Amino acid sequence: MNFFDWNYAIQLLPELFRAALNTIGVTLLGFAIAIVLGLFLAIGRRSARIWISWPIGGVIEFIRSTPLLIQVYFLYYVLPNYGVSLTAMQVGVLGIGLHYACYLAEVYRSGLDAVPRGQWEAVTALNMSPSLAYRNIILPQALRPILPPVGNYLVAMLKDTPVLSAITVVEIMQQAKNIGSETFRYLEPITMVGVFFLALSIVLAYLVRRVEARLEQK
Prior knowledge:
MetI-like fold, 218 residues, amino-acid transport
């Protein structure tokens, strides 16, 4: 029976750390796409113009209802047949960003719907432009209650990055599997990856709580 070898685990740290940078990079870049695109999707879905709200609603439901794995497969293997070629890392960032943008769109929509009706009426009465109204009046009130679910999705994005190994993105889980296949020792690399995801998830959750506390003080 093989027991955990701490010396061997420590030797793996440089290789796993390099792959971890890819994991963190994909997560942060994908989250940047998701948090911006999700807001525009939410605003579009709430539009009074049916020709805007219905197609956007259809796209959101389609992406939310299909697996991330199928979506990144489509981006990586199908789009090149139509002249759109992206690297595995680009597809990983774009795929995970688009996927979670649709989830965040619904989170944003719940926050916007929670803004008191009187605020919307006041904005209309003051004849404020939509961009000014959203930036100064609506969004500051909508963002505070949605921070916890947004933080949850950030952690979920981090934990979904191993899916991208299917399109040859060498993130930390893929690197651990590569090490295991070369040495036939899976216990140490897989355990170290589990510790990495646990530690980083705790750090991200802590940062989200700090942002929440700061907003509550304003």
